[in-house]
Amino acid sequence: MGSGWNEENYELGGALCFTPEGRKIIAHGASRRDQLLLRIGAAKTEAGRAFGFVKIQLPDARQPVTRESFQFRVDRAKLKEAELRHGHYLLRSNLTGGNPSVLWSRYVQLAQIESVFRSLKSQLGLWPIRHQLEPRADAHILVAFLAYCLQVTLKNRLMMHAPGLTPSAVMDALATMQMIDVHIPTVDGRWLILPRYAQPEAEARLVLGKLKLTLPAQPPPRITADPALGAAAAAGR
């Protein structure tokens, strides 16, 4: 608009303006149809995938927005089809000659192996590993396979004794237990080494009780006269 115009308020379908003489007029901007499309777009973003279950009839470009020109309804056939598929997996494969149950079990095992690789990178703290040589890549796969075996063993034991626990929860509870070596110098220049594990806290004791696991006795002490070991122990004090 030209100079001398003062826009005061914006309403649906227009803006309330004043002329230099103080007269009110309505300056029409975006049409009601354009505003309707904007609101439908915002509703589509908020609804996500559920927006596809609604059929909408929009007015034409030069048609006014009325109850007859703008209508919407639920696509019940599409909604019913989605309810039938809800909670089901559709697995596509080129292995058409095998047993479907065997194919599904292999797919589940693949998902479990991928989960173990994630555990290897995060929970076991072995990430990142950047491979430069083929033997190192083979070693990575071997460690991942061993981690998978341990996780499956723990998962099966949990299913028998504590179905509500997961391997990740057990590892978090037992992470507070650490193994340490206590180095004590003797009067004759040797070192007394006491291997000790930390006493389990209340949560760790509960997990061990559910799994019916008993901690072994503390390892026996040993004495060494190794000067390198004594120097390392003295440096760590």
Task: Explain the overall architecture.
- With 237 residues, the chain is of the alpha+beta class.
- The chain has three domains: 6-85, no CATH class; 100-172; 176-236, no CATH class.
- 43% of the residues lie in helices and 17% in strands.
- The chain is built from seven helices and eight strands; from the N terminus they run E-E-E-H-E-E-H-H-H-H-E-E-H-E-H.
- It has helices spanning 32-47, 76-85, 100-121, 134-161, 167-174, 202-210, 227-236, and strands spanning 6-11, 14-18, 24-27, 54-57, 71-74, 179-185, 191-197, 222-224.
- The strands form three sheets. It has a three-stranded antiparallel beta sheet with strand order 1-2-3, with no helix packed on it. Strands 6-7-8 form a three-stranded antiparallel beta sheet, with helices on one face.
- A hairpin with a 5-residue loop joins strand 2 and strand 3.
- Helix 3 crosses helix 4.
- It is elongated and about 105 Å long.
- The termini are far apart.
- Residues 1-19 and 24-30 have low confidence and may be disordered.
